[in-house]
Each structure stands twice: as structure tokens, then as C-alpha cells.
Design goal:
3-stranded antiparallel β-sheet, alpha+beta, 2 helices
Length: about 80
């Protein structure tokens, strides 16, 4: 199975892993949906996430600035 690993903000984890967008404001939902579409993945493709620590730059930059991040692995 081919996978892709992307680094993105930790506060998106519930939406990415479980499809649960509660707790995200409209700006975060918009940024997350744009990020997923740009990468060609969806929350149903998510396999795992691991702590990546604070990153000034990550795969969701510049839509979201520096943030505590996770490395998300998706089916490609």
C-alpha cells in the first residue's frame, strides 16, 4: 500500500483522524478542507498520526502559521 505522510497542526487531529470537526472554527474548517483537497486526501484516508512537536513551517503553511503539529499518514 502506498502512503503519504504530511505534517499539519495537532488541533486538526480529531477532524483528520475521526472526521469530527467540532471545536474548529469556520476559518480552521476552511483551511483544513483546502489542505486536504490540495493534497488529494480525505479524513477517510487517514491511517495514523504521531507527535511532530512545534513547527514554524509545515505542510499546511502558510494557511496556518507555526503550530504544535502531528505527522499524519494517509493512504495515497
Amino acid at each position: 500500500m502506498k502512503t503519504i505522510t504530511l505534517t499539519a497542526p495537532s488541533h486538526w487531529a480529531s477532524a483528520i483522524i475521526n472526521g469530527d470537526y467540532s471545536g474548529l472554527d469556520e476559518e480552521d474548517v476552511s483551511a483544513l478542507n483546502s489542505f486536504l483537497a490540495l493534497q488529494g486526501v480525505s479524513f477517510s484516508d487517514a491511517l495514523t498520526c504521531e507527535d511532530a512537536g512545534f513547527r514554524w513551517r509545515h505542510d499546511a503553511s502558510p494557511a496556518v502559521g507555526g503550530a504544535d503539529c502531528q505527522e499524519y499518514t494517509f493512504r495515497a
